[in-house]
Write a structure and sequence with these properties.
single chain, about 325 residues, mainly alpha, about 75% helix, about 0% strand
Length: about 325
C-alpha cells in the first residue's frame, strides 16, 4: 500500500523493495511475497532510469521465482510485466553486470508457457539476439539467453519465423565460442534444436550446423542432456536434408557413426540418450546412400544392443 501510494517517488519504491527483500529468508513470508511481483515490476517500470532500483528489483524477483520453482509454483507473469521487463532490457542494454541478472530472471520466467508467450508477444527475441551479439564472451548471459530462446522458439504456434531465422547465426556463434563450456553448449544445442524444429535453416546452413553440433557432442561426451539435445537437433536437420546426413557421415573430425556408437556405450543406461540416438539413426536411413554406409559400419549390431538394453521401451 505504501509503495502504491507514492509511485512517482523513487526513494519510496527503493525503500519498499529493500524492505520486501528483508522477508526473503523467512519461508512463512513466501505466499505474501508472491503477491508482490506486480508491485516490484511496476516500480521498476516507472523508475527505469535508476539502475540501483532495477538491480534490487531484479534480484528480489529472482529470489521469489527461485523459491516458487523450489516449491513447484509456476509463476505466469502477464503481458504488462513482460512489457516492463522488455523496457528494462532496452533501457540498460549496455550494462553487462545488470544484464547477467536480468537474463537469468528472463530464463526463469520463460519456464512458464504463458510467460514465454507473453515475452514473445512483446517482441523480446530481437533484443535477446542483440544482447548475445554484444556480450558473446559472457557465459552467464549466453546460457540464459539461449535458454530463453529455446522456451520461446519451441512452441509450435510461432508467428516469428523471420525473427527466429535471424537467431540461427547468433546461436551458432554462441556454441562455437563456448564449445568447451558444457553448460553454455548444452543451452545453445537446445536453442538450435528448437530453431531446427521451426524450419529456420536454409540449404547452406545444414552442413555447418551439423558439424557444429557434432563438435559440441564430441567435446562434451559425458553430458547426457547435451548429447540428447544435440542428437535431437541433428535428427531434425537430417529430416530436412540429406546434406546434413552426409555431413554426419563424412565429418572431417571423425565418423559420425563412430561417435553415435561411442555415445551409446558411454550412456547405455540413459533411455533419453538412447532414444535420441535411435531417432537420429531412423532419420539417417531414409537416404539410400547413407543407409548403405551405416550397414558397412555394422550399425545393426548397435541397434541390437539397444533393443536388448531397452526391451520394453
Amino acid at each position: 500500500e505504501f509503495m502504491k501510494a507514492s509511485w512517482d517517488i523513487e526513494e519510496v519504491q527503493a525503500k519498499g523493495i529493500q524492505h520486501l527483500a528483508s522477508f526473503v529468508k523467512d519461508k512463512s513470508a513466501f505466499p505474501y511475497l508472491l503477491t508482490c511481483t506486480e508491485v516490484i515490476t511496476l516500480a521498476m517500470k516507472i523508475h527505469t532510469d535508476s539502475l540501483d532500483l532495477q538491480v534490487e528489483g531484479c534480484t528480489l524477483l529472482l529470489e521469489i521465482l527461485s523459491q516458487a520453482l523450489e516449491q513447484g509454483v509456476m509463476m505466469a507473469l502477464d503481458e504488462s510485466v513482460a512489457s516492463c521487463l522488455l523496457h528494462t532490457v532496452r533501457k540498460h542494454s549496455e550494462n553487462e553486470e545488470f544484464l547477467s541478472i536480468l537474463c537469468t530472471l528472463l530464463m526463469m520466467v520463460s519456464a512458464s508457457e504463458v510467460a514465454a508467450e507473453n515475452l514473445r508477444k512483446v517482441g523480446i527475441i530481437p533484443d535477446l539476439l542483440s544482447i548475445l551479439r554484444r556480450f558473446l564472451h559472457n557465459d552467464e548471459i549466453c546460457f540464459s539467453c539461449c535458454a530463453v530462446l529455446w522456451s520461446l522458439a519451441v512452441s509450435e504456434t510461432n508467428a516469428d519465423q523471420a525473427v527466429l531465422e535471424s537467431a540461427l547465426p547468433v546461436t551458432s556463434a554462441v556454441l562455437q565460442k563456448h564449445l568447451q563450456n558444457g553448460v553454455v553448449a548444452e543451452s545453445a544445442c537446445s536453442a538450435l534444436w528448437a530453431l531446427a524444429l521451426q524450419g529456420c535453416l536454409t540449404d547452406s546452413d545444414y552442413e555447418p550446423t551439423a558439424a557444429l553440433l557434432l563438435d559440441a557432442v564430441r567435446m562434451n561426451p559425458e553430458r547426457a542432456v547435451l548429447v540428447k539435445n544435440g542428437c535431437l537437433a541433428l535428427a531434425s536437420l537430417v529430416r530436412l536434408s540429406e546434406t546434413a546426413a552426409l555431413a554426419i557421415l563424412l565429418d572431417s573430425k571423425g565418423s559420425g557413426t563412430e561417435l553415435i556408437k561411442d555415445e551409446y556405450h558411454l550412456h547405455s543406461n540413459e533411455p533419453g540418450v538412447a532414444g535420441a540416438l535411435c531417432l537420429l539413426m531412423d532419420e539417417m536411413v531414409q537416404y539410400d546412400e547413407v543407409m548403405l554406409n551405416m550397414r558397412s559400419q555394422k550399425m545393426e549390431k548397435l541397434l541390437s544392443e539397444i533393443k536388448l538394453q531397452f526391451p520394453f521401451s
